[in-house]
UniProtKB/TrEMBL annotation:
Pathway: Cofactor biosynthesis; molybdopterin biosynthesis. It comes from Blastochloris viridis (Rhodopseudomonas viridis). This is Molybdopterin molybdenumtransferase. It catalyses: adenylyl-molybdopterin + molybdate = Mo-molybdopterin + AMP + H(+). It comes from the Bacteria. Residues 175-314 form the MoaB/Mog domain. Catalyzes the insertion of molybdate into adenylated molybdopterin with the concomitant release of AMP. It is an enzyme of class 2 (transferase). Its EC number is 2.10.1.1.
């Protein structure tokens, strides 16, 4: 058995972000920029009115009230063509270009319109209600640096900067193989000896949320040829990551090792000091990384949280790859751990600080408690017994 952090390091070792590709804005959300993105225009491109009112020369209204002749109109997208002559105003609307030689906008609420003229009742400081050219950004300014994970707001900014596509790292392609004679797809009519495969639906959801492209290769019976065939199919798809579930342990039906080797996967470690999740297999075949996840669905989950999702994030170009560990206090006493680190499912409360309480039942087959959990309490190997109230570390379980 190897230690948890050693195993995490080996899985991530040498991972390079996948190559860049242009993604339309609508498909770029949550993905990671592969290059700096600069503005392709100056925004605003001209001085723009921030209000509906009149564009004036400040000198003409400094001693308001003032009566000015209205020379024309500037509307958004339809600028007034001329210059503003002394003693004149131009009717202007929000978003419209301020005419040449106008330097101030007065709001219409402070004016009285007359036929062909306007009375400006109050003086305003020069430059009032004008958004200067380049207020937001200027052409060439880099506002979205390489490595940034794009938020929805970033997508809006990229559009404003006049980009229709963005250079992002390719999505990691992840193939899923679920092994086990006892498995049936959700919605099946089942014999008592069967179980519904829950791990692939969980993995597909978790991976999709992380931006991976998931290819579910379905259920594979406990036969070597069928398992080898599925591994080959994943390889032919060009998967960056192959995940198998089940068959990772020592039973005679646990064919995953043999199948991986038969298809040329170079096996790395097998078995890690983690509960649940011990029989994790790691291997590589050229650029494809393979994780043979233990069959118990909560063990699958734990290994996904600690290994699979970090790997996928690294391939996607992210730098924040490991789950965030936070301090909390225990809401229950916990016994000493043995040589395996533990990921205990539990609830989280806030009494001014975070209080994490482990469920009394921690069986790695129980999906009901996994779904009910707010957090995992992370315990190191060979940790002493801990009393309620003692400090602990947790990983919050989100989506
Ligand atoms: N003699 C030993 N037995 C076991 C050991 C061991 O070290 N020595 N390790 C135990 C641990 S820890 C785990 S974890 C499991 C993992 O074994 P496998 O990876 O070989 O998993 P299976 O035996 O195929 O299945 C275990 C369990 O999980 C259910 N399962 C499998 N796939 C799915 C799925 N897609 N969805 C839902 N449930 C699934 C399966 O029906 C079994 O009940 O081995 C222990 N045994
Ligand atoms: O470690 Mo197994 O992964 O506990 O059920």
């Amino acid at each position: 058995m190897i230690a948890l952090d050693d195993a995490q390091r080996r899985v991530i070792e040498g991972v390079r972000p996948l190559p860049a590709e242009p993604a339309p804005l609508a498909a770029a959300h949550g993905r990671v920029l592969a290059a700096d993105v600069g503005a392709r225009r100056t925004q605003p491109g001209a001085d723009i009115s921030a209000m509906d009112g009149y564009a004036v020369r400040h000198a003409d209204i400094a001693a308001a009230p003032a009566r000015l002749a209205v020379a024309g109109t500037s509307a958004a997208g339809r600028p007034y063509p001329g210059r503003l002559e002394p003693g004149h105003a131009v009717r202007i609307f929000t978003g419209a270009t301020v005419p040449h030689d106008a330097d101030t906008v007065v709001m219409q609420e402070g004016c009285t319109a007359e036929p062909g003229a306007v009375v400006v009742h109050h003086a305003a400081p020069p430059g009032r209600h004008i958004r200067r050219r380049g207020l937001d950004f200027v052409e060439g300014e880099v506002l979205l640096p390489a490595g940034r994970r794009l938020t929805a707001r970033d997508i809006g900014l990229a559009a404003a900067m006049n980009h229709a596509t963005l250079p992002v790292h390719r999505r990691p392609k992840v193939a899923l193989i679920s092994t086990g004679d006892e498995l049936a797809p959700p919605g099946s009519v089942l014999a008592e000896s069967q179980i519904v495969s829950s791990s692939a639906p969980y993995l597909a959801a978790a991976l999709t949320a992380e931006g991976a492209e998931v290819a579910d290769l379905g259920l594979v019976p406990d036969r070597l040829e069928a398992t080898v065939e599925a591994v080959r199919a994943a390889r032919m798809l060009g998967a960056d990551v192959l995940l198998t579930t089940g068959g990772a342990s020592v039973g005679e039906h646990d064919l995953v090792h043999r199948a991986l080797e038969a298809d040329g996967v170079e096996l790395g470690f097998w078995r890690i000091a983690l509960r649940p999740g011990r029989p994790l297999i790691f291997g590589r075949r050229a650029a494809m990384r393979v994780l043979g996840l233990p069959g118990n669905p909560v063990s699958t989950f734990t290994c996904a949280l600690l290994f699979v999702l970090p790997l996928v994030r690294a391939l996607a170009g992210r730098s924040d790859i490991l789950p965030q560990v936070e301090p909390a206090r225990l809401g229950c006493a916990l016994p000493a751990t043995d040589q395996r680190a533990e990921m205990l499912r539990g609830t989280l409360a806030d009494d001014g600080g975070l209080v994490a309480t482990a469920f009394a039942e921690q069986d790695s087959s129980m999906m009901s408690l996994l779904a009910a959990a707010d957090c995992c309490i992370v315990r190191e190997a060979f940790a002493p017994a801990a009393a309620a109230g003692a400090p602990c570390r947790i990983i919050r379980l989100g989506l």
